Amino acid sequence: MEPTSSLTVACVVLAFAVGIGVTVATWDRPRWAWGRRITAVAACQLLLSSAVLLEINHLYDFVPTWSYLVGASPSAGTRDQPGRLDQRLYALAAGLRRPGHGVVLPWIFAGGHSGIIREAEVYLPAAYFDPGERTTAFPVLELFSGVPGSPLSWTASLHLGRVLDREIATGRVAPLVAVVPAINGGEFSDTECVNVVHGEQDDTYLTTDLRTALVRDFRIRRDRRGWAMAGYSTGGYCALNLAFRHPALYTAAASLSGNFAPYLDATTGALFGSSVRLEHANDPLWEARLGSVPPVALYLATAADDVGTVEQLRSFLAELRSATPPTIVIVASGGHSTGVWRALEAPMLDWLSAQLGSPAAARAPLR
Amino acid sequence: MSPTGLGTLLIVVALTLGAGVVTVIGWRRPFLRTPRRALGLASVQVLLAVSVLVVVNRDSGFFPRWGDLIGNQPGLTTVRADVRRSTRELPRLLRTEHPPGGGLLLPWQLAVPGQTRTVRTLVYLPAAYFRNPIRIFPVVELLSTPPGGPEVWTRTLRLAQSVAAEIARHRVAPFVALLPAVDANGPLCGSGDVLLTTGVRLGLAAAFRVRTDARGWAVAGYAQAGACAATLALEHPDLFAAGASIAGVYGSSAALHGITHRHAPDDPFVALARRPAIDLLLAAARRDLSTYAQLRRLAAAARAPTTVDTFVLRSGGHGPPVWLAVEPLVLDWLSAEIGPPLAPPLVPAGNTGGASGT
Fold first, then answer.
1. A18 touches chain B (CB under 8 A)
2. Do B342 and A171 touch (CB under 8 A)?
3. Closest to B356 (Cβ–Cβ): which among A221, A327, A359?
4. Among residues A162, A226, B58, B144, which is most buried (max CB within 10 A)?
5. pTM recorded for the entire structure
């Protein structure tokens, strides 16, 4: 009974109903009357609140497993050796895959430089398994969820596999590999995908470490023209910021309802210590002001009534001086919610695919 | 009155308090006591939870409209982008060539916007162009110089056969090739040029299903035209994804000696110093001394985000045999840069952002 299943929600709602019944039925018992009554009412309220949170989680997959709540990182012993794709898993995936459809695989990778180990999700297109494409290296799309969120926010809530299958089948997207790493360790803390001062090196984990591990385990392109990033909400900021900080690694970035500057609050803490310089180095809005925006193709989308994001987008565009103007998509309504991201998902993927180079047959490197 | 409005909050809070009051007042009444108490208690708790959700929603703005709560976004139905009108393609051709390997080579008088004259070109359409009637194709612009002109590509370099072979080997995704019969040397390769950049692009897109954005175009050439291709790519990273120079050789002494203080029309070092975000491929034979020397100087002068890949042949000198030898690799590299043909992308309805810019 996962925290995302509707069965869990139903059980808790049932428990709430039973709790109400018990509370009312035992109300007039004399012993420890008020102590018992308050405890009973509080217990019912707790059950109801849990049911509400579980239903939200069922809709949006913020917390995919119970261990996520306590921030447990997958340890090396519980799965295959981190970072090494199990050949048997590969064969199993190939067997499970329906013809013409890609497959979504759970994947673990350990960051060589950052030392972080987290779970991720990887989408392999149908073409990956074609006999004629055995040496083809596919372009890569790196996707980030928001906070709270998890890789399942893309693969389950946003049905990434199904959407990519459809876009590839209709020819709007060329076959690509999509990877959805976890942007934080599973707690509700939010590191905004940066290298935290005296903390987790998430920037390194999500860029250079991820590329090294993915190249080792899958047939993918290694060069800039074969990689792009995207995300929604905080994940949109992550995509923008990380692409700006590593323009030699990514050719394009897409942000759905993402912020343009790091958002520091109680859940993030002082990510940059007291260093204003570091904060500015992770601030796309600041870089726009300085005129030092790197040559990454941009897709910036939001709903018109997501007031906070629209304000930031306006500021960013006002400061931006770039040879290639970004692609802006503003839809009429939806606020800051999964409904917006579901509607923008396919158009965004279509745009990203057009920025990437072709799947490239492996050939001897030039030099 | 929206979900985030003050009115909604006041109503929900009032309902909660009201339910609480009613439940408490009627607590001791005997009539149907247990069901009434259960209902009252449950209602108060549920309304309390709803009040909390309303407050959170006001603060965060997650669901500004009632329709958002039930997943109904009236402005977000996706519509297909218009397929280009030019699917009326190939009107009344005077003379076409069907090269081995499939596809079509057309002589095409390209109309350049804003000019009365037309430009003689050859257009290569791969077989896939006709198999996929809605896909939009990336373009490789292939430059040449007199006396051979574009026919050097199509006859000496057997372009259509090479492209078809690479497509069959899954090393190249189909693309359209544009071969303008324009002398790609000298002033045309300076930064003031428009014909070989925007001029032919708009003319081609008006007649064929091709992309117009930078990520869907590359430019290439051999010898002097190769040098021109490299210069155009360096000068226009906003128009090209990549440039390839096959045995490219610069005529001006400035380029030969890497002197950068004089801006000769075809001096690539000036453009390189601006650090354009573009990928270049330079190919030459090691024994073609002056060409090889220029290649090395160019590659050494490149700084991020400019990237320069080089391919150096151990044997061969200057001339068509070398160009033929590197051609498949150059085609592979170009295709990896510009991507495959794609169906028109989806766009969300109600998009008020525009295709680009604000």
1. no
2. yes
3. A327
4. B144
5. 0.82
